[in-house]
Amino acid sequence: MRPIIIIASIIVILILGKFFIWDKKDSNNNTAPGAEKSAGNAKAGRPLSVLTEIVKMDESDNYVFSSGTLAPNEEVEIRSELSGRLIKLTIKEGMYVQKGQLIAKIKDDDIRAQLKKISIEEQLAAQIEARQKKLLEINAISKEEYEISANKVSTLNADKELLQVQLAKTELRAPFSGKIGLKNISEGAYISPTTSIVTLVQTNPIKIDFSVPERYLSNVKIGQEVVFEIDGINEKFHSRIIAIDPKIDENLRTLKVRAQTGNPNGKLFPGMFVKINLNLGSNKSIMIPSETIIPVMEGKKVFVKKDGVAKEIMIITGLRNEKYVQVLSGLNVGDTLITSALMNLKNGAHVSAR
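Now predict its structure.
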């Protein structure tokens, strides 16, 4: 009796499973592919909605944005031409000195002693030359004897001038007006021509060194205004181009340019990083939003809408400003430029403008 009850229970379970589980799964499997297929077809058949704008000529100022570095107008390391003991250092770190002001003094006792000796010898030789000149006038001595004494006077005079030059070299003076940097030695040190005593820097005016691409060579002129900014200073500074490098950098294909500006308040320091804004003048050209340009391996591309289809166009760009980029070739006036959904676009995709 018991086995019959077990068999009957299994049969009931199988019947219930057929109605409540397997039939539901089959129903789901039969309807899902159809729904997905219809949804995919709907998605594939609907054009992608995009924003567009008409390409046109724009007359505006063209700018070159670059980075540069501030450089001192003049800078030199103060070194001695002679070796000797430093007996005086008349400057303080960071102080301003005038051109010709004494900076350091080297011990000169030996040179002064030699100069004193030469002066005495020169005085004696001059007296002898004067006596022999009188003797020559009465033919008491030969002309050769007189010339020997006169030559000795000239030789001693030359030696005296040489010592005076050596004495002048013991005083180190500022070659131009500027600020003293950090001292490298102290009084009492023994120095040589290879010893750097201190650095003298002139920062008013101050120079700005930067580079521009070589294709803008014809647009850069001496005297042209350059505007630059510095991080941390909420102010725009104006300068003028004073020099252009006569050669192009072979590796970077850029042109080195130097500008100059006043720095009376000392806000600008050599070595500061600056952002350059160089105005190359105004002209008519095609300008498009910078965000519409897509960098690719072959260069740069944009998408235009033509006959309801997105078309990929390779372009060559030129100058740029904060928002727009100049297009030198690839686009024509009247083209419909696609400005949105660029990451979802493919060449030949159906699009509709909104």
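The longest strand covers residues 57-79.
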